[in-house]
Specification:
Layout (H helix, E strand, L loop, with lengths): L33 H7 L2 H6 L34 H13 L3 H6 L8 E2 L6 E3 L2 H6 L1 H4 L3 H14 L26 H8 L7 H21 L14 H14 L18 E6 L9 H10 L5 E6 L10 H4 L15 E7 L2 E6 L7 H4 L7 E5 L36 H10 L2 E6 L2 H12 L35 E9 L8 E2 L7 E2 L4 E7 L7 H5 L1
Parallel strand pairs: 3-4, 3-7, 4-6, 7-8
Antiparallel strand pairs: 1-2, 5-6, 8-12, 9-12, 10-11
Amino acid sequence: MRPASSRVLLRTARRPLSVPLLRAPVAAPPSPAPLLAALQTRSFFGLFGKKKKTSGQFEFVPEPTVILEQDDLFHPLSKSPFKELREKGERISTYAICPVSYEKHHETKAVKYECPDCGFPTHASRERWEEGHEEHAESCPRLREVNEDEHDLRSGRRVVEYENMPSIQPYEQAVNLQTWDTFFFTRGFVSINSQRAMRHVSKLLTYPITVMSVLHQNGPFTAGNGRITSEGRRSMAAIHSILHPPPGTSTEDIDIRPMAPFRVFLLGARGESTLPADIWLQLSNVFPRTPFNIYFIGPEAGIPLVKGSQRQHLKMSEDGSKYGVPSCTVNVTPQLRLISLKAPYEAVHNQLGPFDPYQDVFFAFSPGLGFPDQSLLDPNNPTPDVKDGEQPLVQAQTSWKSTLQSILETKCGLFFTAFSPTDLARDVSAIFGTQPPTSAPGQPSEYPSNVQLPTKPIPPIEGVSDEFELILTPGTNPFASRKWEIADWDTRVAVKTNWGIWGIRGKKYEVVDAEDERA
């Protein structure tokens, strides 16, 4: 499976390097993401403030002390009251170089001067900042937004946008999955009343709602808008027949007999596996008659956050008695079960079978299929010379090859996300064997300069290149996170989690009678 050093946004390097050699343009702090950093130190529960007792499984700690008021959210990173943000500024000062010094003066100087407007270290000195002020104005408002968002999350206020999330969707009420706005309205989110609140909530909900938007018959991907292919219509019709009752069915006619769980496999899971368990309830709440088993599979899969008393009893079972690998199961509700499997997918594929295209689906969030496999690099020489005519192997050819082959054989849908247009195009080119994209002239690269990206089409991958059919065309994901993530090596580079999405399925071969063929 994909190494942690190459995962987008939420991934950190496995080993210290002289420069950040990462897959994604954001070198995350020790925890999966800025917000998840708060989650994993358990301050997430404190963000919610007081909450009324309910009959549900989850409880929240009392309201914390407010550290920053809403009119005091902007702080230069070096003077931030929060250690995580001060460390973010230090990493940028260590890895990033001044764009003005490098591009106009041909000097390699670290960024030591913090822009007074956005609070990020962006230039070598005030003089260079003034010289490049016009160019910096393009990214400055975005950096200011990120600065205030990160301080707001840690301010200690009641994050009311996370409170009172909708429960089970009534059968007679339809949910609209065209945009975040229509989803929040038709699902009854009452606290999403600002763009900042939208960014905070979308950062967490992008994972379950992206899955929901693909599975739901009212989702944004249809044959009419060109996103679902003819083969995709067949795959989605099979899924819809399980998740949705037939048209015209009344509440009295619904079959209430127990159903086999609908299984969602999240490959290469890491940060998404440590989200609060009730975040994933938003998926099952929209399909109340269908039980869900969600599998987080990957070498760095974690344990979902639950209430404190239960958290003490949750840990990975190291004996591997059930799945043959370390695992942890959380029974959130009778309709939702979360299973973490801490192992590469190929280690558990056989245990999870048999597979059914009607009730099984696979997702990989920003897998980096077209990104060079960093596990093949020499730690003592992270920027090796590539011989003429050769180019580095990408992960679709190495760590993802066996996984792709196994999943395509199941004929189940396999969906990928990407963090930017370039990332999406690079992953698609790796599978289709087409020319990979390049950065536009004069624009900052989404990857560190020491990463040697392929510049030629990837050769056909055995068992993959000729064995899949496109079911969801590559394009934007309406349920991408609306929160920007800033790269440590260049503050001009910013991406969004799950920006794009596309999907494939194993090729199906029609059986033809020999006599009919001769005729």
